[in-house]
Each structure stands twice: as structure tokens, then as C-alpha cells.
């Protein structure tokens, strides 16, 4: 990691519905944003880890990350899997380059063993996630 200090770019809001974690993320993000994401999600993940849980990520803006941040995100997902994360659904809401964004996040998620899917509607995503939780 570089010795630098930058402000986190992007926005993040987290809510919980039972064993479903809903993450609203606005991009573009940077490495500092991923570090903030990891820190803010840690307590949720630990509290939910007694049983299988899933996450719904709703992206807006430009949901892309620089290479260093992408690598941190892969590590973060793998750590969450160790805490009983079983699936992730992604929705792109008001994203200009949806195809590029989906390819970007597919590449990140394919570096893990996490079940994942891309959805247009929140209701369909939540239904799928609840099925994965069991």
C-alpha cells in the first residue's frame, strides 16, 4: 500500500433486514472508501455471522474502483464468507455504463467462491437472496 492520505470518495449507507444486509454504494470509490466500507461493515458481519446471511448491494453513480481498491474488495468478500456470507445480489440503479460495471464486478466476484447475481428489481433480488440463506 502506498503511504498517502486521501479522503474517501463515494458514498455508503448500510441497513439490515434480518439476515439480509443492504448496502447502498455511490461511486466512483477509491481505496480509502473500501477501507471505510470494511470498517463500517465489520460489526454488522460479526453480529450476523451466527447464521447464514446475504447482502444486497445497490450501486449508483460510477461503481468502479482503482486496482488497489478492487484487490481489497476481493479480500473483504472472502473475509465476509468466513463470517457466513452465502450470497450477494447486485443492482445497478442510475448507472451510466451498466455493462462495463457488471463486467467489473463480475471480475471481482469471480475471484471468490461467493454465489452472486445481477438483478434489475429489488424484490427479485431479495427473493433470490432469501432462497440462498435458506
From TrEMBL:
Listed name of the protein: STAS/SEC14 domain-containing protein
Species name: Paraglaciecola mesophila
Amino acid at each position: 500500500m502506498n503511504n498517502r492520505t486521501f479522503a474517501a470518495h463515494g458514498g455508503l449507507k448500510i441497513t439490515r433486514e434480518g439476515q439480509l444486509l443492504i448496502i447502498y454504494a455511490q461511486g466512483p470509490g477509491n481505496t480509502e472508501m473500501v477501507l471505510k466500507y470494511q470498517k463500517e461493515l465489520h460489526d454488522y458481519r460479526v453480529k450476523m455471522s451466527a447464521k447464514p446471511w446475504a447482502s444486497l448491494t445497490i450501486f449508483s453513480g460510477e461503481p468502479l474502483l482503482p486496482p488497489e481498491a478492487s484487490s481489497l474488495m476481493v479480500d473483504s468478500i472472502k473475509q465476509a464468507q468466513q463470517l457466513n456470507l452465502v450470497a450477494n445480489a447486485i443492482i445497478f440503479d442510475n448507472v451510466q455504463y451498466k455493462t462495463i460495471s457488471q463486467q467489473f464486478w463480475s471480475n471481482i466476484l469471480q475471484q471468490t467462491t461467493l454465489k452472486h447475481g445481477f438483478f434489475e428489481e429489488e424484490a427479485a433480488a431479495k427473493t433470490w437472496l432469501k432462497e440462498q440463506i435458506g
